C-alpha cells in the first residue's frame, strides 16, 4: 500500500511539473508571437487618508504615476508613467502592454509643494503652465504669436500678424516648451478649437484670454486657387477658404503630444504621499483599475516649537476686543539633525477641564488658527484679536503651537 501511494505521489508531482513547464512554454510562445499594443487605463484610487505623521491627504493629490512590471519574466515595462485627471478619475493610454498577460502595477501619488492654491496642475491635462495647453493628442501654443514674443527672427510682421508664408515659417522655427517640432495647424485642427456657444472670441475656454477675435491662418491651401488659403475666424466662429495668402492674420502653432514618449516640462516640486500596488490581467478595450493607496509616513526629523512669551490683556469688559501676541522659537537635542519647518497655531477658549467652548460662551479669536514660517533666524510673532463674550466671567484661554508632525506645546492663560 505504501509503495502504491509513493508511486501515485511521484506521478502527481511529475504531472504538476510537466503542467508548469507547459504553461511557461505556452506563455513564451504567446510572448514571441504577440506585439505590445496601446491599452487604455482608467484608475480610481482608494484607501486610508491622512492620520497623524502622514504626509498628505487624498484631496492634495495633484500627480499620479504608475510603475508597471510584467509578471512573466519579471520585466519592468514602464517607470513613472503619468496619468491625467479629468476631475473624477485618472486616465492614460499605455503602448507597451500585451493582452492576456499579468502585470504588477504600482501607483505613486504626489502633492505639489510649491504650487499656488488656484494653480492648474500639469497632471490635469498636460502642457507647460503659461506656455502650452494639451487638448487630446495635440499640444497648442497658449499665446497668440506676436512680433515681440522673442520666438522668431527675420519675419515681416504687420501689427502682430503675418502673411501665410511667414506664418508657416514662424511655426516651423518655433522652439517652445522644450520642443521644436511645431507646425501651422491645418483647417481641421484649428477649427477644433472653435466654440460657437460663447461670445467672442469664439474659442474653447483654455484660450479665451490669449486669442484675438479675428482670423487665424491654417496651413490648408485652397485647392482651386493657389494664391488663397483657409483660415478660421474666432470672431464669427466659422472656417473660410478665400483668404489671400499675402494678407496678414494671427498665428497659433501646434504639435503632436504623446505622453508615452515624452515628459512634460514641469518646474514644480512634488512629494510622494501615497503608494499602492495591484495585480491586473490586461484585456482588450479600457482596463479599469481600483488602486488602493496607503499613506506614507512622514519620517522627517523636525525641531520642536516652544512658546517664549505671551502678551495678553489682563482685564477686559464684556464684548470688547484686544490683541494677543505669542513669541515662539524651536529647540532640538544636541547633535540632532532636526530642521525647522512651518509651525501651526490654534487659539481657543476652554473650560476647567481644557475642553473647548463655543464662541458665545468663550468668546472668539481672529484669526483662530494659522501658520508661520521662519524668516531669517527667527519666527515672526503670532498675533490674534480676542473678543470677549457678552458676559462678565473669568475666561481660560489656550494657545497651541505645533510642527508639521503634530508635535508641539500648549499654554493656558487667564
What topology does this entry show?
Elements: H1 2-33, E1 37-47, E2 63-70, E3 75-82, E4 84-85, E5 90-97, E6 102-112, E7 132-135, E8 138-141, H2 164-172, H3 187-191, E9 215-221, E10 228-233, E11 238-244, E12 254-256, E13 270-281, E14 287-295, E15 304-311, E16 321-331, E17 343-350, H4 359-362, E18 364-366, E19 369-372, E20 382-387, E21 396-402, E22 408-413
Parallel strand pairs: 1-14
Antiparallel strand pairs: 1-5, 2-3, 2-6, 4-5, 6-13, 7-8, 8-12, 9-10, 10-11, 13-14, 15-16, 16-20, 17-19, 17-21, 18-20, 21-22
Report on the structure:
By secondary structure, the protein is mainly beta. Helix content is 12%, strand content 37%. It has helices at 2-33, 164-172, 187-191, 359-362, and strands spanning 37-47, 63-70, 75-82, 84-85, 90-97, 102-112, 132-135, 138-141, 215-221, 228-233, 238-244, 254-256, 270-281, 287-295, 304-311, 321-331, 343-350, 364-366, 369-372, 382-387, 396-402, 408-413. The strands form five sheets. It has an eight-stranded mixed beta sheet, with no helix packed on it. Strands 15-16-20-18 form a four-stranded antiparallel beta sheet. A four-stranded antiparallel beta sheet has the order 19-17-21-22, with no helix packed on it. A hairpin with a 6-residue loop joins β9 and β10. It is extended and about 90 Å long. It starts with a helix and ends with a strand. Residues 1-22 and 118-125 have low confidence and may be disordered.
Amino acid at each position: 500500500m505504501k509503495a502504491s501511494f509513493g508511486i501515485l505521489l511521484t506521478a502527481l508531482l511529475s504531472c504538476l511539473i510537466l503542467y508548469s513547464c507547459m504553461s511557461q512554454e505556452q506563455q513564451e510562445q504567446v510572448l514571441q508571437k504577440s506585439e505590445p499594443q496601446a491599452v487604455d487605463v482608467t484608475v480610481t484610487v482608494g484607501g486610508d487618508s491622512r492620520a497623524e505623521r502622514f504626509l498628505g491627504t487624498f484631496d492634495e493629490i495633484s500627480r499620479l504615476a504608475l510603475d508597471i512590471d510584467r509578471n512573466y519574466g519579471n520585466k519592468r515595462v514602464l517607470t513613472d508613467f503619468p496619468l491625467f485627471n479629468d476631475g473624477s478619475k485618472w486616465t492614460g493610454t499605455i503602448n507597451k502592454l500585451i493582452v492576456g498577460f499579468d502585470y504588477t502595477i504600482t501607483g505613486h501619488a504626489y502633492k505639489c509643494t510649491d504650487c499656488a492654491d488656484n494653480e492648474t496642475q500639469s497632471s490635469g491635462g498636460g502642457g507647460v503652465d503659461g506656455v502650452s495647453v494639451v487638448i487630446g493628442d495635440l499640444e497648442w501654443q497658449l499665446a497668440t504669436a506676436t512680433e515681440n514674443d522673442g520666438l522668431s527672427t527675420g519675419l515681416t510682421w504687420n501689427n502682430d500678424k503675418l502673411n501665410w508664408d511667414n506664418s508657416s515659417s514662424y511655426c516651423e522655427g518655433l522652439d517652445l516648451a522644450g520642443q521644436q517640432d511645431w507646425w501651422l495647424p491645418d483647417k481641421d485642427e484649428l477649427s477644433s478649437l472653435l466654440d460657437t456657444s460663447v461670445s467672442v472670441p469664439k474659442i474653447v475656454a483654455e484660450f479665451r484670454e490669449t486669442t484675438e477675435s479675428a482670423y487665424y491662418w491654417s496651413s490648408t491651401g485652397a485647392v482651386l486657387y493657389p494664391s488663397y488659403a483657409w483660415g478660421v475666424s474666432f470672431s464669427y466662429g466659422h472656417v473660410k477658404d478665400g483668404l489671400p495668402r499675402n494678407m496678414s492674420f494671427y498665428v497659433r502653432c501646434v504639435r503632436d503630444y504623446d505622453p508615452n514618449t515624452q515628459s512634460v516640462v514641469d518646474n514644480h516640486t512634488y512629494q510622494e504621499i501615497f503608494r499602492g500596488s495591484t495585480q491586473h490581467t490586461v484585456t482588450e478595450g479600457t482596463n479599469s483599475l481600483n488602486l488602493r493607496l496607503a499613506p506614507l509616513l512622514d519620517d522627517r526629523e523636525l525641531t520642536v516649537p516652544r512658546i517664549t512669551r505671551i502678551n495678553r490683556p489682563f482685564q477686559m469688559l464684556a464684548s470688547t476686543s484686544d490683541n494677543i501676541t505669542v513669541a515662539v522659537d524651536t529647540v532640538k537635542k544636541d547633535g540632532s539633525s532636526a530642521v525647522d519647518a512651518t509651525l501651526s497655531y490654534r487659539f481657543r477658549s476652554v473650560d476647567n477641564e481644557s475642553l473647548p467652548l463655543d464662541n458665545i460662551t468663550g468668546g472668539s479669536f481672529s484669526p483662530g488658527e494659522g501658520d508661520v514660517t521662519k524668516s531669517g533666524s527667527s519666527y515672526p510673532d503670532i498675533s490674534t484679536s480676542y473678543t470677549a463674550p457678552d458676559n462678565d466671567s473669568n475666561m481660560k484661554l489656550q494657545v497651541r503651537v505645533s510642527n508639521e508632525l503634530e508635535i508641539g506645546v500648549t499654554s493656558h492663560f487667564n
